[in-house]
Structure formats: structure tokens, C-alpha cells
User: What shape does this take?
Amino acid sequence: MSAKASSSQLSVSSSGSGGLSHVYIQHPPLRCNVPGSRGLFYDDGNKLLFSPTSDQVFSWKAVPFDPHVSPTSDSISEGPILSIRYSLDAKIIAIQRSSLEIQFFHRETGQNFCHKCKPESDSILGFFWTDCPQCDFVLVKTR
Assistant: This one.
């Protein structure tokens, strides 16, 4: 499977607090040729663009962006993808599979595990990795 991206300009926008919220893809637009792609995702913690397929995720460094650099690729298991982010040390991939489940893949060992909420409890709205001394991962839920 081949994957290519090309663009002349890619810039990251940050809010007044210094937090990154989104990426601007300027003219000409980014071209991503990943067969079976399930869309593009942006990881603001690592400044990465992701293009997952049914069994792999391709990632490109967004800052600085070089359209001539090939993406990195990681194997993942089949399933829906609502959100995807690497841990800040890039050792773990977290994938939100539904409003009740997040799956974690250890990139070096291949081990994976899931966090599931009870259907009658809160729903997962999103998640992010943090460099806070008290925790590495923040799960945002409805309550």
C-alpha cells in the first residue's frame, strides 16, 4: 500500500492560551492518496496528520510539513474511528471507537487494551494526552 501527501503550505493555528486547536491547509490544498482512507485527523499534541485505513494508520508531521517525506505507518485493528491520537512520547496510539470505547495500542509491543464505559453511564465526548505530572491521559465525558 502506498501513501503520498503533497502541499505547498501547512500552518498551525493556536489560541491565545497557547493551545493548538486546528490546522490550516492553505492553497494549494493537501492531496492525500491513501487507498481506503477513512478521512484525515489532526493530533494537536504531536502536530501530526493521520489518515487511517481499515488496518493501518498513516501519519505525517504537520510542523514543519515536508510533502516529500513519506508517512510513518502503524498497524491497527479493524473498527470505526471517531478520533485518533498518539501519546506525547509517541509510544501509544489511542483510538476512540465509539461514544463508549477507546482502544489503546502499544506501538513497540503490539499489545492493546480497551477502556469501555457502561452503556447506562456517561458517554465519551473526546480525549487528549497531557504532560501534567498527575496524569498522562484525559477523558472528556458527558458528566
Q: What stands out?
A: The chain has two domains: 1-75, 76-143. The chain has no helices and 14 strands. The mean pLDDT is 80.
